[in-house]
Amino acid sequence: MENDRIEAYRGSCVCGTGEVTIKFYSHDRARLTKSRGFETSIRCVSCRTEYDIIEQNNKFVFVRKSDVKQKQALWSQYWQRSEDLLKTAGTRKLLSDLETFLDTQSSAAVCHRLLRAYDLVHESYATFRKRWNGGGDWIRSHVHASDLDEVLELLGKKDPKISNQLSEFEALLQQHKAPLPIVGKPLLNTSPYRE
Predict the structure, then answer these.
(1) Domain extents for the chain?
(2) pLDDT tens track, the chain, 195 positions
(3) 103 CB contacts (<8 Å, ≥6 apart)?
């Protein structure tokens, strides 16, 4: 079980004194394991300290490590605020109402249809039925803060406080998803390696 490695790119670092390589690898059983990817290396102490090479929009690019750190901080802030929202009294009450609503339905099939109609479940009915242990269990393992708008809609409720917080979270998430500013020109287009 060997890994095939192909040098896909070799060039200068940002400051021009070192070298950068990007290697594409695929496991000899890639169809079974889906173990394909890239390895990057910066052979310049100065550039390795200040920059990272990341894949962004199907291209490998140089970005500042400080920008990567900021992006990670946005994700952490989004995640923490989402977790905090799930712990508020208003959200706990909403999820309790959802549990009661689900547990009073006539069958798991009805629950699945309702949840699917509001984009709260994506699995097949057969999978859903195998895992169904009641509303409370399902909520604990499947409902996240990002689902609360759909929960409100399903229950026919409005909660401006929750909706406003979700709007703020969405803004954080969009900042996190925004492409990082690149330094220099893109190094490698990865599209041909994805086919």
Answers:
(1) 3-64+180-194, 88-177
(2) 455 778 889 999 999 999 999 998 876 554 555 567 888 999 999 999 999 999 999 999 999 999 999 999 999 999 999 999 999 999 999 999 999 999 999 999 999 999 999 999 999 999 999 999 999 999 999 999 989 999 999 999 999 999 999 998 889 889 999 999 999 999 988 888 776
(3) 134, 135, 136
